[in-house]
Amino acid sequence: MPDLPPQSPADPSGPPTFWGRLTAWSLYRALTGLVFASPRRQFWMLILFPVIWVLVAHLGPILQMMQVSFLSSYPPSAGKEVVLTTANYSRFFGDSIFLVPFWRTMVFSVVLTLTTLVLMYPVAYFLARHVRRDNQLLFLMLLLIPFWVGEIVRIYAVMIILGNNGALNLLLRWLGLIERPIPFMYTNFSLSVGIVYLTALYMLMPLYSALEKIPANYSEAAADLGAGPWTRFFRVTLPLSLEGVGAGCTLVFLIATGMYATPVLLGGPNTTLFSQTIAGFFHVAGDQWPTGAAFSTIMLVTALVVAGAFNRIIALLSGRVAK
Amino acid sequence: MTRHTRILMSCIYWAFALYLLLPLALMMLMGFKDARFIGFPITSWTLDWYIGVFADRQVMFTFGYSTLIAILSTAIALVVGTWIAVTLTGRAFFGRAVILGLTLLPAVIPGVISAIAFRIYARVLGIEPGMWAIIWSHAVHNVPFVVLVVMARLSTLPRSQAEAARDLGADPLVVFFRITMPYLTPAMIGAGVFCMLLSFDDFVRSYFLGGYDPTLPVLIFAKLRSGMSPEVNAISTVVLVLTAVLGIWAERSMRRIKKQANR
């Protein structure tokens, strides 16, 4: 072959493009030459930023919170000596004012997670199995629209339904079932309705995507082998959807434990949750931050342990199915 | 499944849809009530509350403030999230699992705890409560979602395209901007709109990290604590309509781009 002029990417035929001009620019060439000199250096340049980001922005706040939880006073003020102490933690175990909301939060979150699971499973099953493919998106969108609306707006919508002059009381009175309005608001009931209202979709989506993946002919094969509808569900469909159950329950549980506006607006004096207790330490003036940090740490560790244990059980269960 | 269970399940679906939609519909309706007092029945109607929303300087300012926070935090989350996703995809290296775990960490931390951790951290770093503290916390909260969505899309990118570009002399930066990024666009639009909605709707972080200016959810919260009034209904309805329109638009445009890409 006669020697052809080398094809340069910086010099394409036709008018120079933006990329052509950029890559021909000497400063750009010098910089990229430096950065992309070897695959090793490329890798380091690529990974440096993510590592710094996750350490500083993701891990930093949590570690800092844990550190502050062991201090005797924070924010620093003049004339106060700061020492390391575990007093903030022992304060939690010594007082039922703190223990009761803590246990209430945990029990509430677990119960509501399971309630949401039982309520959402049929909905997800219906969507994945009984709605035609073309219509599934439409049916999902109908449920997704309220989900996009923020927490506060949705809490307000629940308040309008459950108030003394709300839609539910009006309906019950109109039906002649009650004489005077039932005070639904500021009780465990209104709080539960609100939390289920806010978290239901976080359960529905993982369940739906797990159920949608199961081929329909599995259940047909089971039917051919003589399995009744209940056997088919408990031996085929349910075990195969366990992954979605695990993901949905984890999400709902962690969201429910971390809710703050919902118990403030929908709950009453008898339904104080631990998030309100924690927030209280940051509202009042004074030296309460370390206690708040210690309580947050306790709650974070407990929530993650519960979620982790639950996922472990799910993994064991689906492992047994696989064998 | 028998016919009866199918009918039963469709009833459960519609009951659930009603449970989700009815409260919001009634809330919208109540914004037209011609009285200060919230409650049924509605006897006379008015548009004044809705007109009032657009005339209220504070509400309009807060609306712009929340929008600005949503846009800036989403921009940060998209850049960082895409960078992390590109780094973690298609490579095996020591510590990859640790970085992935740390990347997803903000997604599993209960809301109130993450807000408080940021409050303390901002104090330690000397960041004043206010717009930048909120933007930063929203960006961190949204990074895991961007990473998950972008990684899912990246895993389907044909390797041959990037290899061909590299053979033709493109450096990694050009390959990223001319091959990888166009392929990621639908995922980034989807993740971006989702992040914007999350940031716009976020209450707990904005509440603990906010300075003197409230974001829209914080303003509605404050108004709710001082009493229910049709004014709140009107504000909420405007928010609801805008988020629904944005969400539906994103869903549609994402599917259109995907369809074009698959052709």
Automatic annotation (TrEMBL), chain A:
The chain crosses the membrane at residues 18-36, 43-63, 106-127, 139-162, 182-204, 240-261, 293-317. GO terms for biological process: transmembrane transport. Pfam families: BPD_transp_1. GO terms for cellular component: plasma membrane. Residues 102-310 form the ABC transmembrane type-1 domain. It is found in: Cell membrane. It is a multi-pass membrane protein. Gene3D superfamilies: MetI-like. It comes from the Bacteria. InterPro entries: MetI-like, MetI-like_sf. Keywords: Cell membrane, Membrane, Transmembrane, Transmembrane helix, Transport. The keyword Amino-acid biosynthesis does not apply. The keyword Acetylation does not apply. Belongs to the binding-protein-dependent transport system permease family. CysTW subfamily. This is ABC transporter permease. It comes from Paracoccus siganidrum. The lineage of its organism: Bacteria, Pseudomonadati, Pseudomonadota, Alphaproteobacteria, Rhodobacterales.
Automatic annotation (TrEMBL), chain B:
GO terms for biological process: transmembrane transport. Pfam families: BPD_transp_1 (PF00528). SUPFAM superfamilies: MetI-like. GO terms for cellular component: plasma membrane. The keyword RNA-binding does not apply. PROSITE patterns: ABC_TM1. The chain crosses the membrane at residues 12-32, 63-86, 98-121, 133-154, 175-200, 232-250. Residues 63-250 form the ABC transmembrane type-1 domain. Gene3D superfamilies: MetI-like. It is a multi-pass membrane protein. Keywords: Cell membrane, Membrane, Transmembrane, Transmembrane helix, Transport. Belongs to the binding-protein-dependent transport system permease family. CysTW subfamily. This is ABC transporter permease. It comes from Paracoccus siganidrum.
